[in-house]
């Protein structure tokens, strides 16, 4: 599998596109005004303790207070009790108190109405290693399956562990030599020393450690991908990335290219249009079927339909083929849209148990290309498949889109007829409550036109009923649901 990274940089925004075999697979967007917070370390202040939720709200100088659950607090840093079971979580009131200063790290960005989620188990990542200040041992990524390689890496890293910190060996370290791992360990030690120095200053207005910006982070974190080329359309960023790779990821330096072309870099491989399509609910399948993807705050639902695909043999074969094709598209769309949390897939009902097993296998194989942790359940009695995909940052839709000012996120509008009847009821209500000579209705052009034409007989009957004149005027700035009833 061949891969290519396109990095588009402007002063206000950085975008990265991962192309595999000529097809867009992932898009990462970071805006300077809304840089992701995951990985940032703060000296926070406890502002409220909630015993009922076993949690506390922490002020880290963001718009919304951050959330720290008792299970995310390293109790070794707070209390010492050798008699506690390993899985025991003490009462939150024994761990923190209001007004307390505490060092925390963001593990989930703010999402919707929810503030950032925090932990006191601090980690700092480099290319091959993750430093754990509150541990004293070496751990190996579970994705490194070879026991021989695991033992080799552990033997190299263990001498760098101390009573003050330990290390986790990342998946990218598989095959790395001792010099590369030593370089990472020393780099992380220097970073942690700076964090400790900033902590002593007790300043809460800025993070005491901030993760790398997007362009640098993707070069550090994209593992297991055979990159042929990394094109950057900013000369300054290209030079910075070259210095960074020479120091930390020298094997990537030869693949860096500055892209000076007049054609926008995201026009290559049709990236801009693919991003626009990733914001649509409906995704067409080559067979003629289609998917409907709906993202809510609680979960994402995916519905598969045969559409115009009638197949060549029988209905059962048609359904199986559509579901099988859908698994490939689902896996790609989850990566492309960065959808996480609970995902419910409503496959077209299959009577064959063998077909169900093959569809689940196809979905698992397609998802295996994803670098994000996931799990897939079996078909439920209702024919649904429940999935989870780890979510640590906002989806593409949340980054690029906002709530509709007309429907307030409902996804639909009241019909013109419904609004007309609401207006007629409002006139009756106001007439009973107040004394007036006549009424003026201000409404959108579509509603005004309907009141004057389609609903004229209802309007006339109401004038007779209340014995007062009703005048309708168009307000061009009103949306379809807006109206005002004015007494004169």
Automatic annotation (TrEMBL):
Q: What biological processes does GO assign it?
A: rRNA processing; tRNA processing
Keyword check for Hydrolase: yes
This protein's GO CC annotations: cytoplasm
Q: Identify which cofactors the protein needs according to its UniProt entry.
A: Mg(2+)
Q: Which residues form the S1 motif domain?
A: 39-121
**What does the UniProt keyword field contain?**
Cytoplasm, Endonuclease, Hydrolase, Magnesium, Metal-binding, Nuclease, RNA-binding, rRNA processing, rRNA-binding, tRNA processing, tRNA-binding
Q: Which CDD domains match?
A: S1_RNase_E (cd04453)
Gene3D superfamilies linked to this entry? Nucleic acid-binding proteins (2.40.50.140), Ribonuclease E, catalytic domain (3.40.1260.20)
Membrane-spanning parts: none
| A GO term, aspect molecular function | tRNA binding
Q: Where in the cell is it found?
A: Cytoplasm
The keyword tRNA-binding belongs to this UniProt entry's keyword annotation = yes
NCBIfam families per UniProt: PRK11712.1 (NF008689), RNaseEG (TIGR00757)
Question: What family does the entry list?
Answer: Belongs to the RNase E/G family. RNase G subfamily.
- Record-given protein name: Ribonuclease G
